[in-house]
Amino acid sequence: TFQSCSLQDPTAAHYMFQDDPFLIPRNAANARLYSLSKEAGKNAAKYIIKQFPQYFDKTFAEPNIPCLMPETQTPQIEGVSEEALKERIHLRRVKDSVDLFDQLVQAGTPVSLETTNSLLDLLCFYGDGESTLEKQEEQKEDLEEPGVNTSEQKAPKTQFRRGLQSSGSRWRENNNAERIFKIMPERNAHSYCTMIRGMVKHGASAKAYDMYMDLLNERHKADVHTFNALITAVPYLKEKFTERWELAKVFLNHMVQQEVQPNLLTFNALLKTLRKCGGVGRSLALSVVKEMEALDIEPSLATYDHLLFIYYRGVDLSSTGIILEVLDDAEKRSFTPQDPDDGMCFNISDNLHCLSLAGKCCDLKDIKLAYRLNKAMEKGDNWKFLDMDRLNAYWSKFFSLLCMMEQIDVVLKWYKEMSLSVFYPTPKNILDLLQALDAANHLEVVPSVWEADMKQLGFGRRHDLLEELLSLMSREQHPEEIQLAFAKCAEDIKAFHEQTGREQALLDWTGSALGHVALLFSRVGRTQDAWYVMMERFQQSNRIPTEQVMDEFLACAIQTKCPDEAIKLVKLAASLGLPSSQRLKSRTEKEFELSEKQK
Questions:
Q1: What are the residue ranges of helices labelled H in 134-235?
Q2: Quick one: which of 226, 332, 361, 485 could link to 447 by a disulfide (CB 3.0–4.6 Å)?
Q3: Alpha-carbon distance 304 to 480, whole Å?
Q4: What is the mean pLDDT of residues 451-469?
Q5: What are phi and psi of 294, to 5 degrees?
Q6: Could you list the residue range(s) of the whole structural domain that residue 104 is in?
């Protein structure tokens, strides 16, 4: 059917890389590099268009489609006038707008309140800086305190300064926004609200609170967006957890008095503040969610993130109650972005990490819960909230949990469908897969993991993976066909140790790795290769072969009728002073008809 043709192709790379097959990444590091390079190219193109608009002002397309052409960035209105100021504000030319406003003021030309407010909007949004390719998102502050049950517990003083976010205030004293605000002949509620939101956005929370007091003194009313900003700033205005909650309640009461209807962002801002209120926040978060339900406001992904952070950080995670309730709701919905924090830090996937890694955050190991989470993530366009790095991290954690909890057939089915199409396995994923194959006694699959995955993903030089792989292959005897495949893997690994390049350091042999390779060669009758490892590599690395290695090499020499190699082995054992040298000598004399010279 047509539907079967439109499903995801498990053999295809991410759609981002389809334009150039040569740049299809082999591993997570390459995927990150190529995706960032592609975005950097887009940003570079935007920069060129913005810096050199004169080269893009000609229209060659027939018919001309304006929406596909670059926006006009050059001001068209000349002279000093309010219309020219409006145009520069619309083009987001911060410096030009301020200069033109100052010229109008100096000339005695009145500027309307609406236009002045628009200029304040521009200045407060960009923090009085130029609107070029600056970072739009600041790093999420890490001021969340660990779970503390006492309401009087104070936040760490080393992390707290009144009115300043962790990244520091980026609001300059007496900047253009403040200067223009002070010289305005009249101000309305919009003027105050814009200044408050700008101060909160750029780290001047104390100034924002003082500005809010001025707004009340002037008998103006704040809008819902201003209250949302003030609630977000609460942790930087008060130190004690109880004081933070009391101040947040003051703002909520003011909303009631001013008849301002709360929205989703109001409750998300409140939950975001409760994240930084320790045990107080944990005791109040559910009542906030119930109030949302009473107002018929649906949660967003940021709501769930705040809840999971409040209840699942720094506490015993033996209970899945909140996670189950979140998933019950998330499974029924396909989400759309409603909050700037949506998708930026959706921690349900991080809680899957808690489920899958015992000894980290919890010991749940609940595969059914993981399947439910995956179903919710794949519903509609929910997966788009995770960027490529987070998506790869999500699938990596999910696959590790599969290896721990599922049957091997199910694990291999998921791996075939996911690998290199929706995620790039990490070294830990490969290690988990090898351990799952070992637990299920499916070691015949190991050579394909080496050939199709470890080599392709660039993991052929990782000591931990090589040790695990060689250990599994050499631990027991297997049918001849499987042993031949194991020997082929051992030959590849030997080549990886011996190859050198300009940017590659020589891969050091370990004694166990040498022993495993010698065993694998011996079991398929490759006497010369096994002896090369025994004689050359063991001596170069100052290693001593184990008794098992020497016994199996002798068995190989006997099987292939190579008395000279057996004699060399006895001499090697004697030169090393090994107690097994006499036993090896006796067995060699028994199995071979030696000449007088050989004896």
A1: 176-183, 189-201, 205-217, 224-233
A2: 485
A3: 55
A4: 87
A5: -65, -30
A6: 73-137
In a domain, 338, yes or no: no
Q: Which tokens go with 248?
A: 């947040």
Tokens of residue 182, six digits: 């002070």
Task: Report d(CA 427, CA 556) in Å as an integer.
Answer: 34
- Asked if the structure places residue 67 within a domain, the reply is no
Mark which of 100, 119, 137 sits at the end of a domain: 137
CA Rg, the chain, in Å? 34
192 or 55, greater pLDDT: 192
Give the pLDDT confidence score for residue 419 in this predicted structure.
Answer: 80
Of all residues in the chain, what percent carry a pLDDT higher than 70?
83
Mean pLDDT of 404-430: 88
Measured distance CA(310)–CA(279) in Å, rounded: 9
Same domain, 123 and 203: no
pLDDT in tens, 496-506: 887 765 556 77
Beta bridge partners of 240: 154
Nearest Cα residue to 14 out of 384, 272, 289, 362: 384
Q: Last residue of a domain, which of 116, 137, 158?
A: 137
Task: Classify residue 467 by burial, with Cβ atoms within 10 Å: 0-12, 13-18, 19+.
Answer: middle
Count of domains forming the chain: 2
